[in-house]
Amino acid sequence: MIRELNTQFGIKGHLEFVEDASGLILAKISNDQGSASLCLQGAHLMSWQPRSQKVPVVWLSKDAKLAVGKSIRGGAPVCWPWFGAHATESAFPGHGFARTVPWRVIEAGQDVGGETRLALRLVASDKTREQWPHACNLDLNVVVGETLRMELITENTGSSDFVIGEALHTYFQIGDIGAVSVGGLEGCAYWDKVGGSSLKKQEGEIRFSGETDRVYIDTSAECVIRDEKLKRRIHIAKSGSHSTVVWTPWIEKANKMGDMGQPDGWREMLCVESANALENQVKVAAGNRHTLIVEYHAAPL
User: Which domain holds residue 295?
Assistant: First the structure.
């Protein structure tokens, strides 16, 4: 399979497929603008670092484990076709099955600007159809360069409508959680998921002094992470997304996870997720498609 992938889709000096010790296949991307890695299981972007940055922009835990059928701690997991717990089936996996099942490569190439493109499609199986009995395609298109662009495309190929929840659950590398803020969500309503679930309104920029798990609703705003320690801004622009999730586990929850990068890995990451969750779930009509697009870039403060 590795030989076939490299023959059909490999790009000398820019895109190579390799097999990890776990048996999972990784796509290694490198060009004049940046580098990235992606696991074909889950179409899981694991890392991204523009050449202009001394440290990565997308965070991957140093204790991340790659294993068949398991999600990876860090990167940009694909949450689909539901976000959070399933509405009726408690045995179904949280955040859906897309991040833990095989995907196949359907296209790769170099853009005229030097960016590297990679497109993948989820491989449906009897197990996925048990959880999602709708005819559809799910594609992820990734463009790696000085910016990172990701497009999650849901195509309804059946004869009846369906509703999806989704997110690109991106973990960002930061200097320290106590020295960052997130702007762009001022005045937005959000569901505060810590200690229950209550609807609140954001006042000013978001700062962090404890566990944070918030679903901001009815917003397509661009967000900016201001990082005082790394002296940079991370811009998060999106379309086709009307929810933004902001999450940091803090020390107690991080210690229970076991793969956050002990002892202080949790202090060096922040999730700002582009999503369609809760009341912002999306109806995809028969024969139509829905596309969630995010674009990230980093700049000096």
Answer: 2-300
Contact 215, 243 (CB under 8 A): yes
pLDDT of res. 62: 95
Is 19 one of the catalytic residues?
A: no
* Signed CA dihedral, 230, 233, 235, 236: sign only: positive
Instruction: Output b/e per residue, 246-270; b: 16+ Cβ within 10 A.
Output: bbbbbeeebeeeebbbeeebbbbbb
Whether residue 44 lies in the annotated active site: no
Question: Per DSSP, what are the bridge partners of residue 216?
Answer: 190, 244
All residues at 6 or more sequence positions from 130 whose CB lies less than 8 Å from its CB, including other chains: none
- Position 260 scores a pLDDT of 94
State residue 254 phi and psi, 5-degree precision: -60, -40
At 182, the amino acid letter reads V
Closest CA to 238 of 273, 213, 210, 207: 273
Cis peptide before 263, with omega less than 30 degrees from 0?
yes
Spatial contact of 118 and 105, defined as CB atoms under 8 Å apart = yes
**Interval 223-241: pLDDT, tens:** 999 999 999 999 999 999 9
Tell me if residue 69 falls in helix, strand or coil: coil
| Active-site option among 44, 169, 242, 297 | 169
Distance CA 242, CA 239 (A): 8
Is residue 174 helix, strand or coil? Answer: coil
Q: State the total domains in the chain.
A: 1
The catalytic position among 115, 151, 268, 273 is 273
pTM greater than 0.70? yes
CATH number at residue 39: 2.70.98.10
